């Protein structure tokens, strides 16, 4: 299977950013609750049919020491208490995996600091689907992709990759209009005839609505992938 340049690039960025972050593990009871940086990642895709929620708490900024939440500190997802896990690469984190079919819609994360103060974060998780499946063979020209599960003005990463080393491929962020992503005939000229891999990734990256003084972010993504032959 062809792997897009975007996927490789995104993996390298994640690897680099992770390598800059501490994997040391501390305890929330040993730090000022207002100095905790909060990072939430929610990701999933159609291919695995799973959504992964990973929640991490750090002391010393977004790349600082990872923290275990000692009672009364803790974190819940939709009212369910999450337990800590750890790895040599990531340090301490809180993670759960849920079937995408059960996860579309609204969710709530509640982080309780060691001082008992609570921070609530509500978010919508989008599950994208094609309103109409792409044909196995696509004629050269403009390509309109209609999607379910998106709102107008949502931002979607669009990646189209062929098997040629010399072509430019397509990798950009588009804004959804009328539930549709439009790829012009001129854009399609960047691709060679033959097998094409299409990836669509809806991404949201924003500050938390409620967080300690140190701050925090939430990153939400969902991806689709298809293969077709360009003629």
Structural commentary:
Strand 2 and strand 3 form a beta hairpin. The longest helix has 15 residues, at 5-19. The chain is elongated and about 60 Å long. The chain has helices spanning 5-19, 185-188, and strands at 25-27, 36-45, 50-59, 65-68, 74-77, 80-81, 84-87, 91-99, 105-112, 118-125, 129-130, 137-138, 143-148, 155-161, 170-175, 180-183, 194-207, 216-230. With 231 residues, the protein is mainly beta.
**Structural class, judged by helices and strands?**
mainly beta
What is the N-to-C succession of helices and strands?
HEEEEEEEEEEEEEEEEHEE
List the uncertain runs.
1-19
Multimeric state of these chains? Answer: single chain
In whole angstroms, the N-to-C terminal distance is 19 Å
Strand content: over 45%
Number of structural domains: 2
The total strand number stands at 18
* Biggest sheet descriptor: 11 strands, mixed
In brief, what are we looking at here?
The chain is 8% helix and 51% strand. With 231 residues, it is mostly beta strands.
Which descriptors apply to this entry?
18 strands, 4-stranded antiparallel beta sheet, 11-stranded mixed beta sheet, 8% helix, elongated, 2 helices, mainly beta, 231 residues
Topology, element by element:
Layout (H helix, E strand, L loop, with lengths): L4 H15 L5 E3 L8 E10 L4 E10 L5 E4 L5 E4 L2 E2 L2 E4 L3 E9 L5 E8 L5 E8 L3 E2 L6 E2 L4 E6 L6 E7 L8 E6 L4 E4 L1 H4 L5 E14 L8 E15 L1
Parallel strand pairs: 1-4, 2-18, 12-18
Antiparallel strand pairs: 2-3, 3-4, 3-8, 5-6, 5-9, 7-8, 9-10, 11-13, 13-16, 14-15, 14-17, 17-18
